[in-house]
TrEMBL record:
Species of origin: Stenotrophomonas acidaminiphila
Functional note: Catalyzes the synthesis of 5,6-dihydrouridine (D), a modified base found in the D-loop of most tRNAs, via the reduction of the C5-C6 double bond in target uridines. Specifically modifies U20 and U20a in tRNAs.
Pfam family, one: Dus
Annotated site location: Interacts with tRNA: N80, K166, R169, R280, R283
Residues at the catalytic site: C83 (proton donor)
Name by which UniProt lists this protein: tRNA-dihydrouridine(20/20a) synthase
Reported cofactor(s): FMN
Matches recorded under InterPro entries: Aldolase_TIM, DUS-like_FMN-bd, DUS_fam, DusA, tRNA_hU_synthase_CS
Sites where the protein binds FMN: Q53, K122, H154, N194, G195, G196, G216, R217
Length: 315
């Protein structure tokens, strides 16, 4: 997710969910080719398995970007066919590609030919007032024919006119049944469902119908849900928020030593105590203190202490 799931966020999410597959923010193929690769593509070794999400609609450029991603050590390249923003539409990529299955097929085929890692697609059900399951399934089939190894379905339309990107994640109705049907009719195709999944129960219920679930906003705002889901799926013992947080310490300290400001990491930790007694205190201490010069791990310890104190008072 753009501006959210940067490398620091992903290191944290990896600690919470050792078995999850993590995705980068979308990076346009042109940026991969011409931009600052260390900044755009750099990641920590702990993040594997990790997918780079690409934006674009030029087969040759996407193939080149996919090759760069593979050389950087990514485990998967994912093509974005779901982003509805104006900027993306002007550049003819993202969700508007749902109407161009042939072009996307050429992009996927070019990427598949360029790399040995899986090439996957993230899409919507359609755009604007499309309500044609056959067109959606045809879009997916074209990408599978081109070599796509898996599809992530954000199970709602993108409305390209009149809605903001935020509204486009909320207003068009969710239709999980289309993803279920896609899977039922194509048992060999790995289908991952995305959209509106916020609890372990909701996520696990989908796994009766599809192969996987992708959590977006819930993973960011309430990241402990990733840990709960991991434990529910694998039977691994549940670890406390504090214990998981402590595991971030070596990474945080090495980043501080390399000159990073604490706030760039702690902004991704704010939701750890979401809905918990003391959670507000945790957020407050971190968000008020992390931008101060010299802020270091001691601030995180202080936030934990305040959280404990508040929770005790509330008990
Ligand atoms: C801030 C933000 C940035 C996002 N950026 C991307 C992106 O770069 N690529 C993408 O495929 N989806 C992006 N999304 C959409 C999410 O991946 C996801 O499809 C959507 O939020 C629905 O899933 P959820 O209900 O689990 O959040 C973004 C969502 C948010 C909130």
């Amino acid at each position: 997710m753009m501006d959210w799931t940067d490398t620091h966020c992903r290191v944290f999410h990896r600690i919470l969910a050792p078995g999850a597959r993590l995705y980068t923010e979308m990076v346009h193929a042109n940026a991969v080719i011409h931009g600052d690769r260390q900044r755009l593509l750099g990641f920590d070794a702990s993040e594997h398995p990790l997918a780079l999400q690409l934006g674009g609609s030029d087969p040759a450029l996407l193939a080149q970007a996919a090759r760069i991603a593979a050389d950087w050590g990514y485990d998967e390249v994912n093509l974005n066919c779901g982003c509805p923003s104006d900027r993306v539409q002007a550049g003819r990529f993202g969700a508007c590609l749902m109407r161009e299955p042939e072009l996307v097929g050429e992009c996927v085929a070019a990427m598949v030919a360029a790399v040995d890692i899986p090439v996957t697609v993230k899409c919507r059900l359609g755009v604007d007032q499309d309500n044609d399951y056959a067109a959606f399934a045809g879009f997916v089939d074209r990408q599978v024919q081109a070599g796509a190894a898996m599809v992530v379905v954000h199970a709602r339309n993108a409305w390209l006119q009149g809605l903001s990107p935020k509204e486009n994640r909320e207003v068009p109705p969710l239709r999980y049944d289309w993803a279920y049907r896609l899977k039922a009719e194509r048992p060999a195709l790995p289908v991952v469902l995305n959209g509106g999944l916020a609890t372990v129960e909701a996520a696990q219920a989908q796994l009766a119908h599809v192969d996987g679930v992708m959590l977006g906003r819930a993973a960011y705002h309430d990241p402990y849900v990733l840990h709960l889901l991991e434990a529910a799926q694998t039977g691994a013992p549940l670890r406390s928020r504090e214990e998981l947080l402590q595991q971030m310490r070596p990474y945080v300290e090495s980043q501080l030593q390399a000159g990073l400001a604490l706030k760039h990491i702690t902004r991704h930790l704010l939701g750890l105590y979401h809905g918990q007694p003391g959670g507000r205190g945790f957020r407050k201490v971190l968000s008020e203190g992390a931008h101060r010069p010299g802020a270091d791990w001691a601030l995180v310890e202080q936030a934990v202490q305040v959280t404990r104190d508040q929770a005790e008072r509330a008990a």
